[in-house]
């Protein structure tokens, strides 16, 4: 089997109910699908995170990399990953280049699963067939008061989630702690509550926030400081009993190695379609496992990426949870059959037993968002 072509399709959704984090307001969400075709008529589908840019940027990068892999055996994923990384060395190593490699890698694993007639998580060395997910919500919205965020958390609990996350960092520490307190009171003691600072704080501020969070039994405090301030993150982690999680803005095993070696995180949060795909994220998870650190997958693009992240977490021993965005988003809700992403009574999602990622993309439903 040989790779004959690499193509992309891009989609844009203009957000109707604008929402925000401490980092930015979200008015538009993008999806870039990657298609790897072969001489045996089997096509693998991946997704590449556009990393906040217009999808045409990452689509152009993937088109640029096509010549590196056309004609190669798609099962040689280690060779292909290394070649792509070397090809982008002078303008990559992080950011868009690694996201482009990620999309290609996810498509390769989907292709291999389809060829071998096995689900991807089993090819990767299945550790479980169900994965816990958490409700990613609690975003800032104009005109929403504290009660709104508590009600939102209760809805997630009623929907079956055993864990919820909300944003902090945009308001004063007092105001944000009021939101955390309201959510904790609303969901009770048996639901995990997490917070995400989106690198809004200085080290001193983050330590103050972490001390406040201790009283609310917060499961983890995500991205307390700037992602490149590894020493600062380590300082925060050493100052509190609240676990520090991060960083979705980090890339490859090399970036996560530095976080882990510095004891800057208690949870690693690679983003499968951004941090290096299955091939690289398995290595990130393995290095974390060697240091007794759990892995929580960041997932904030389409339902296809969410499904891929479920396969990733199901393939590792130290998998903890996958992020499940709860904002209204057609490219998550309509891209695949939503029954695949339904929670059971324990807040878990069962992995599909079909080959590859185990789903078909509903192109007819998402066509109207295609660029």
Question: Could you walk me through the main structural features you see in this protein, from its secondary elements to its overall organization?
Answer:
The model has no long low-confidence stretch (mean pLDDT 97). The longest helix is centred in the first third of the chain and has 22 residues, at 95-116. The chain has helices at residues 55-69, 77-87, 95-116, 120-123, 146-158, 173-187, 203-213, 230-239, 252-261, 272-275, 277-290, 303-314, 330-333, 363-366, and strands at 3-20, 25-38, 43-48, 130-136, 163-167, 192-196, 218-222, 243-246, 267-268, 295-297, 319-325, 348-350. The protein has two domains: 3-118, Enolase-like, N-terminal domain (Enolase-like, domain 1), CATH 3.30.390.10; 122-369, Enolase-like C-terminal domain (TIM Barrel), CATH 3.20.20. The protein has 14 helices and twelve strands. It is of the alpha/beta class.
């Amino acid at each position: 089997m040989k790779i004959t072509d690499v193509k992309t399709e891009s989609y844009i959704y203009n957000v109707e109910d604008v929402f925000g984090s401490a980092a930015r307001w979200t008015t538009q969400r993008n999806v870039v699908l990657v298609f790897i075709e072969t001489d045996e008529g089997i096509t693998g589908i991946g997704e590449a995170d556009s990393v906040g840019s217009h999808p045409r940027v990452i689509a152009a990068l993937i088109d640029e990399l096509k010549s590196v892999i056309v004609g190669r055996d798609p099962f040689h994923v280690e060779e292909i990953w290394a070649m792509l990384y070397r090809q982008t060395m002078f303008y990559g190593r992080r950011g868009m280049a690694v996201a482009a490699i990620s999309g290609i890698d996810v498509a390769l694993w989907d292709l291999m699963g389809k060829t071998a007639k096995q689900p991807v998580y089993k090819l990767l060395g299945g550790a479980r067939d169900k994965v816990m997910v958490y409700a990613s919500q609690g975003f800032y919205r104009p005109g929403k008061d504290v009660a709104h965020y508590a009600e939102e958390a209760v809805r997630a609990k009623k929907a079956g989630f055993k864990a919820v996350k909300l944003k902090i960092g945009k308001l004063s520490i007092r105001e944000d702690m009021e939101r955390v307190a309201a959510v904790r009171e609303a969901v009770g003691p048996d639901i995990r509550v997490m917070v995400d600072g989106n690198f809004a704080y200085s080290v001193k501020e983050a330590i103050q926030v972490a001390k406040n969070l201790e009283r609310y039994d917060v499961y983890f405090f995500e991205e307390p400081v700037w992602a490149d301030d590894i020493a600062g993150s380590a300082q925060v982690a050493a100052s509190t009993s609240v676990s520090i999680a991060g960083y979705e803005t980090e890339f490859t095993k090399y970036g996560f190695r530095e976080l882990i070696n510095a004891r800057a995180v208690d949870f690693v949060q690679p983003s499968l379609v951004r941090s290096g795909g299955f091939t690289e994220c398995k290595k990130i998870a393995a290095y974390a496992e060697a240091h007794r650190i759990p892995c929580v997958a960041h997932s904030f693009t389409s339902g296809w990426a969410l499904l891929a992240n479920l396969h990733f977490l199901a393939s590792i021993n130290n998998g903890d949870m996958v992020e499940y965005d709860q904002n209204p988003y057609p490219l998550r809700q309509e891209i695949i059959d939503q029954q695949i992403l339904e929670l059971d009574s324990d807040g878990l999602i069962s992995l599909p037993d079909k080959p590859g990622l185990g789903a078909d993309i509903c192109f007819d439903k998402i066509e109207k968002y295609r660029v």
